[in-house]
Amino acid sequence: MKKNGILTFCFAFIPGAGEMYQGYMKRGLSLVMICAAAIALGSLFYPLVGFAFAVCCVVWMYSFFDTFNLRSQLLAGAAPEDDYLFHLGYDVSLERLLKTRHKLFGWVLVAVGLYTLYDELIMGFLRELYWNSENNWIIRVIYNIMDEVPTVLICLALIALGAWLVRGPQQKKQDPAGDPFEPFEQLPGQLDAFSGYSEKEDENHDGDAQ
Q1: Has residue 145 got a pLDDT over 80?
Q2: Which of 102, 153, 165, 209 has the fewest CB atoms within 10 Å of its CB?
Q3: Where are the transmembrane segments (predicted)?
Q4: What mean pLDDT is predicted for residues 145-164?
Q5: Confidence class of residue 169 from pLDDT cuts 50, 70 and 90?
Q6: What domain range is 67 assigned to?
Q7: With helix as H, strand as E and coil as C, how does the chain read?
Q8: Is 85 found in the same domain as 15?
């Protein structure tokens, strides 16, 4: 069914809405979830506000032009199949993802919980001391240092992740002496030697019998 062009243009300004309006619910839901995750990340971790804003801008531009690309494909009769952008629905179910990556999700939840505890408890207490002790420079120094702790930790985590990606997966060196398939590779030669030895033994046995 042909969709209204004006409504398509209006929905294109909302990430994921243009795709959903044209019947691509999984595709549109993927874009909505990306924006929602970026906004939630930026609201929880203040140093990542800029990163979250950049992600939302990229998703918005992709969604805007993807809406009209889908419209042109629908009009040409070459509509692609609706699917999740990150294949969390059809190829890999959420249950399977949680089973294989449960530790990763666990550490993410631990990090979010620790940051919330840090921001609400520790930094909340330091803010009260900061604003109520104008002449105490020690409190101000402690507050400024603790305020930068999340930024430093996130930078270190990004550096470690980047170094790990640059290095790539390390392949284990295979020890020839400990190769479990080596005896099977030598088996044909051993069988040939055994066969030759058996033929010689048969000839000697026949000569003795004569």
Answers
A1: yes
A2: 209
A3: 28-61, 104-126, 149-166
A4: 80
A5: low
A6: 5-92
A7: CCCCHHHHHHHCCCCCHHHHHCCCHHHHHHHHHHHHHHHHHHHHCHHHHHHHHHHHHHHHHHHHHHHHHHHHHHHCCCCCCCCCCCCCCCCCCHHHHHHHCHHHHHHHHHHHHHHHHHHHHHHHHHHHHHHHCCCCHHHHHHHHHHHCHHHHHHHHHHHHHHHHHHHCCCCCCCCHHHCCCHHHHCHHHHHHHHHHHHHHHHHHHHHHHC
A8: yes
